[in-house]
Amino acid sequence: MHEPVPIPRGNEDLATWPTVYAAGILAGQTVLVSGAGSGMGRATAWLAARLGARVIVAGRTEAKLAAVVDAINAAGHEAHAQVVDIRVRESVDAAFASIAERFGVIDVLVNSAGGQFPQASIDFSEKGWLAVVNTNLNGTWHMMHVAAQHWREAGKGGAVVNIVVVNQGLHGVAHTSAARAGVIAFSNKAAVEWAPYGIRVNCIAPGAVETEGWAVYSETTRARYPRTNPMMRAGSPWEIAEAAIFLGGPGGRFINGVTLEVDGGGQHWGEVWTTGKPEYFAAATRLWDDASEG
After folding, report:
1. 39 pairs with which residues across the strands?
2. Residue 294: pLDDT above 80?
3. CA 143 to CA 45: how far, in whole Å?
4. pLDDT of 2 above 70
5. All structural domains of the chain
6. Lowest mean pLDDT among 1-5, 11-15, 79-83, 261-265
7. Half-sphere exposure of residue 122, counting CA atoms within 13 Å on the CB side?
């Protein structure tokens, strides 16, 4: 069984965490990362900055953004905060206009912002469903669409990397699975339609990646997550960040319209029950196990 990988826990870890990339490969680039106040977005912002990019750290909570920006700048890199509510088109329009005025048109957009809560789908309220879909699907579209229009107007290309989810067996968060499936479908079409403008669009589908977001799940569920893939371990936000830089950076120049699954092989094997596995299904699993042992 694979040993668990170390997980960077905060800005101090991210400032020195080992990377496979050469220094300076993003020099002269401007990278905008949404949802960059924590988790995979924060790791991506740190990695891009350490590789020489000017990083725009975007999100809804100014204090969280400031903590990341201050830490990145203190380490000798360049980062700037941009408050934006991706659910609101006017907020996205204003954010991109402000960024363009200060720094010019961005080069890479990483959409890491999103949110969900674990609940059986039969118990969803309309409000809960719409909240998740509006953030994860509509919010991502707002960011993609405005970025693409800026690139078209500027006569230059760019790259979009959308953080979605692995669909295999991800039960208990059907609303986010539906929303992220919409992001993947739109990304596939946009990858073709936007190619004449020099715009590449790709997605990353993380599996069980240990972030602060795991706090919404029960201790029992969190303990089982590392066993939902054949590598028998959880992933790290840094591993997602390195995948995002690969797709959005120079290594991905000829990659367009793909969804890269970074899940230890979980999409081919295993189950993820964010709300706990119902007895109806657990009993069937026990029968299978008993038959195997017999």
Report:
1. none
2. no
3. 17
4. no
5. 11-293 (3.40.50.720)
6. 1-5
7. 0
> CA-CA distance, 202 to 217, in Å (whole number)?
28
Least confident of 36-50, 150-164, 267-281: 267-281
Rounded to 10 degrees, what is the CA torsion of 121, 122, 128, 134? 50
Burial class (CB in 10 A: 0-12, 13-18, 19+), 294: exposed
In whole angstroms, give the CA distance from residue 262 to residue 216.
22
Distance CA 46, CA 17 (A): 10
For residue 145, what pLDDT is reported? 98
Rounded Cα distance between 179 and 164, Å, is: 9
As given in the structure block, the two tokens for residue 216 are: 């919404």
Cα–Cα dist 210/207, whole Å? 9
Residue 24 token pair: 């300076």
What is the sign, positive or negative, of the torsion defined by CA atoms of 103, 40, 27, 153? negative
Q: Which residue shows structure tokens 């000798």?
A: 76
Instruction: Select from 128, 81, 74, 117 the least CA-distant residue to 102.
Output: 81
* Cα dist from 262 to 73, 110, 182, whole Å: 29, 16, 19
Least confident of 49-63, 183-197, 257-271: 257-271
Give the span between the Cα atoms of 240 and 261, in whole angstroms. 10
Helices (H) and strands (E) in the chain, counts: 10, 9
The residue type at 286: R
Query: Percentage of the chain with pLDDT > 90?
Result: 73
- Rounded CA-CA distance 169/230 in Å is 14
Structure tokens at 62: 């100014």
pTM over 0.90: yes
